[in-house]
Amino acid sequence: MDNVIGTLGIEPSVFWSLTFADLERLMFNHQIRDSYDWDRTRFISANILNSRMGIKKSQMVKPRDLIELPIDKIFNSTSNKKISKDEFLENTKKMKKALPFKIA
After folding, report:
1. CB–CB of 1/15 below 8 Å?
2. Domain locations in the chain as residue ranges
3. Cβ neighbours of residue 92 under 8 Å, at least 6 residues apart?
4. For 102, what's the count of Cα atoms within 13 Å in the CB-facing half-sphere?
5. Which of 16, 47, 57, 64 is deepest in the core (most CB within 10 A)?
């Protein structure tokens, strides 16, 4: 409990009123925000390394080569894969059926 309250910066009364799902969302959100801070740090570090005079483009360091972050796995997940036109149209039909209102 003390770790969660300290990490998230929430009051104990708020902590005890949270459901497990709420707490999980808050912790995930904290991890993402922390990853964005580290992402900014590694981006700046890569730019500093790449600003050396005479470095070739093929020798440039990418930020993801410096530090691997949990956020990388989220953005490189299989959910971002390209789908065919038929799959897209099928998914669109399913979404239109699931909505409580009509879309033209």
Report:
1. yes
2. 2-98
3. none
4. 1
5. 64
